[in-house]
Amino acid sequence: MKNIEFACHESEMLCGIIKRDWIDNSPNYHFLGVPIDISSSYRNGARHGPDFFRRILHSENFECVTEKGLSLKNYYRIQDWGNIGIISTNLRKSLRLTSEGVIDLLQSKQSFLVFGGDHSATIGISQAFDELNLPFYLIYLDAHLDLYDNVTESNLSHACTLRRASEASDFLGATVLGYRDFNESQLAYAKNNNINTISTNDLGRQTDLFQFGMNLSQNLVKKHHRIHVSVDLDVLDPSFAPAVGNPVGGGISTRELIWILTGVFSGVNAKNISWDIVEFNPLYDLSEITAFTIVKLLLESLGAQISF
Ligand SMILES: [Mn+2]
Questions:
Q1: Ligand 1 centroid to 19 CA: how many Å?
Q2: What is the distance in A from the centroid of ligand 1 to the CA of 92?
Q3: Is the N end or the C end of the chain the one with fewer CB atoms within 10 Å?
Q4: What's this model's pTM, rounded to 2 decimal places?
Q5: How far is the CA of 193 from the centre of ligand 1 (A)?
């Protein structure tokens, strides 16, 4: 893999969820960190996300058994590729390096998760799909629509992510789940660009979020769509995830997000889906609340991607 700092791939860094004895020469799942926050519009610090997240994974507190009783270590051999070598003065180049890393992962045809970093990392991911001429559909969990054309004279801001992704020639469409901070022009853009929007309020009225998530991904796969799931942690209420760049009150709970994600991942073969978790800003993580939320999301989501 090109342009990667291999700073964090040593096996002693990889315990907790990523147990030491999972590491061997034939990984079937890949992690990649994108320590970027150049375009954050409010609270900087997401660049520390990937490494801080690994510190939490280092804990031996976790049994790595999902609520359904699956022991992840029986199924996964995880390769952590460390972090993309971000250039802190050059966002465009940094996203280019991100996209090159993701191209390598996509070409390996194996499942992967990207840790942010702020949400601009997903611009790099969508550029990778585009470059490989791989049509992709986004499931986009976020309190925001991220459909601004420009923010503070940057068209690569984390608040422009879905807009830029939607301009890719291989973009098939998106479903945004859990938005609650938006304006009329963003909603109008969504309507005209095959972006389905489901607000936090509408999501809360679903009676079975697991089934809802599963129906969503199954329908997309029936249309032969390759899916990328982008999880901006601000989709959660700040009481569950205080350490995000732009918190918005009134969000969903960790449990509701687990239902949605496990539903989405259960609906498709893991080879047809990839994902990212972005906007974790450990500088604001009181009592590591957000970090432990992420660990739980990761555990249950990996469990739901096991196919028999
Ligand atoms: Mn957001």
A1: 31
A2: 20
A3: C
A4: 0.92
A5: 19
